[in-house]
Design brief:
The chain is built from five helices and 27 strands. It has 374 residues and is of the alpha+beta class. It has two domains: 2-187 and 289-373, no CATH class; 191-284. Strands 13, 14, 15, 16, 17, 18, 19, 20 and 21 form a nine-stranded antiparallel beta sheet that branches. A six-stranded mixed beta sheet has the order 10-9-2-1-5-23, covered by helices on one side. Strand 7, helix 4 (129-139) and strand 8 (145-149) form a beta-alpha-beta unit. Helix 3 (96-106) packs parallel to helix 4. The two termini are 33 Å apart. The relative contact order is 0.21.
Length: 374
């Protein structure tokens, strides 16, 4: 940890942008619990004044256009020129909606178009995420928000931190305010293989009929011959209550197949209760299109000049898995106003655009991208 932290401090000293108003500190779970706790303490003791700080353990990090996973890596997103408020909640199981109501009552400057963006990291084992998101929709309907599930290090729970407090259960986050309303988008991997097909028979998470035909018969059209296996095709579920869902990928939920039942010509999609009347699309899995930072040094440090325009871009995504990408032992990184581009892979992602009335959707195979502008 000390070697990585020296790299972070050196990068920040080179930027010389003054004390940050907000810091997002992310680290791969490969560090282990004790090292992540140490990193949270180092951020708090750095002498940067009193920035609002949040952090979490994640599966992988994207820095400088490259992914770091399965080995220790740390990245800091240090923001200047934004107003920031940190918050956390411990032991909230069963109280998620009331906690969200407290946030709604306590956050300053409530109102649409205020240039606010909420970022929330939660321990998915101790937090009922669906209840938390429902509460956020009820208490802060005007607020664009993104979030993710912290990843569990080996031998310990997922770790989150807020300012100098380390949280093993619950959630932590930031409310960021800049001069313009942020944008929130969902980017899906892969290529759609068909037009939306109505689900005509289902039970629970099992789909038996598509467009009046046996589900496996339809699935076979979009798999290889012979079939390449359940991971060769993903399923995009479209909200039946949203007439424009087919044209708005923000409202798609992408899932891989969880099982096949040849006797009943059915397949299972791990997305809770699948409803008859929903539409779905089959997708061929593929890589995300990722934006590279405008400036990146060989050390993995991304830095740029401050000023107007984009303040930050944070991408929360599904880790694409093992591959041939070389991964160094340590990837210290720091970004700042004007050039903040960072990706983090987690157990799940969620998002809500400004003015969206329905609860946010949980994403496990998609990338949620939020941009804050000054």
């Amino acid at each position: 940890m000390s070697e990585a932290w020296d790299g972070v401090r050196h990068a920040w000293a080179q930027n010389d942008s003054g004390a940050p108003s907000a810091v997002i500190a992310l680290a791969t779970a490969a560090w282990g619990g004790s090292a992540l706790t140490e990193m949270a303490e180092r951020v708090a003791a750095e002498g940067w004044g009193e920035p609002a700080v949040m952090g979490a353990s994640v599966e992988a990090l994207e820095v400088g256009g490259a992914w770091w996973a399965n080995e220790p890596a740390v990245a800091l997103l240090a923001l200047t020129g934004v107003e920031a408020h940190s918050f956390r909640a411990d032991e909230i199981r069963g109280q998620e909606r009331s906690v969200a109501a407290e946030w709604g009552a306590g956050f300053p400057g409530k109102g649409p178009g205020a240039g606010d963006l909420m970022i929330v990291a939660a321990d998915g084992l101790s937090v009922a995420t669906d209840s938390l998101l429902t509460g956020l929709s009820e208490s802060l309907p005007w607020l664009p928000a993104i979030g993710f599930g912290a990843t569990e290090p080996s031998g310990g729970p997922a770790l989150l931190w807020c300012d100098d407090e380390v949280v093993e259960t619950g959630c932590a986050g930031l409310l960021l305010r800049s001069g313009q309303a942020p944008t929130v988008d969902v980017v899906h991997p892969g290529t759609a293989l068909c037009e939306p097909i109505p689900i005509t028979r289902s039970r629970g998470a099992w789909i038996y009929g598509l467009g009046g035909r046996p589900a496996l018969e339809v699935l076979a059209q979009y798999q290889g011959s012979p079939p390449d296996g359940p991971q060769s095709v993903w399923v995009g579920l479209l909200d039946p209550d949203s007439s424009d869902a087919a044209a708005d990928p923000e409202k798609w939920v992408i899932r891989s197949l969880a099982g096949l039942d040849a006797a009943n010509s059915a397949f299972c999609v791990p997305a809770g209760a699948v409803e008859t009347g929903m539409d779905l699309v089959f997708l061929k899995p593929g890589a995300f299109s990722r934006s590279r930072p405008e400036e990146a040094t060989s050390s993995g440090t991304n830095a740029g000049s401050s000023g107007h325009g984009e303040v930050c871009q944070l991408s929360l995504t599904h880790w694409p898995g093992a591959g041939g990408t070389p991964r160094p032992r340590i990837a210290p990184s720091i970004t700042q106003t004007g050039a903040l581009r960072l990706g983090a892979s987690a157990a799940y992602q969620w998002s809500r655009r400004a003015g969206q009335t329905e609860p946010p959707l949980l994403h496990t195979h998609s990338s949620v991208v939020a941009s804050l502008r000054g």
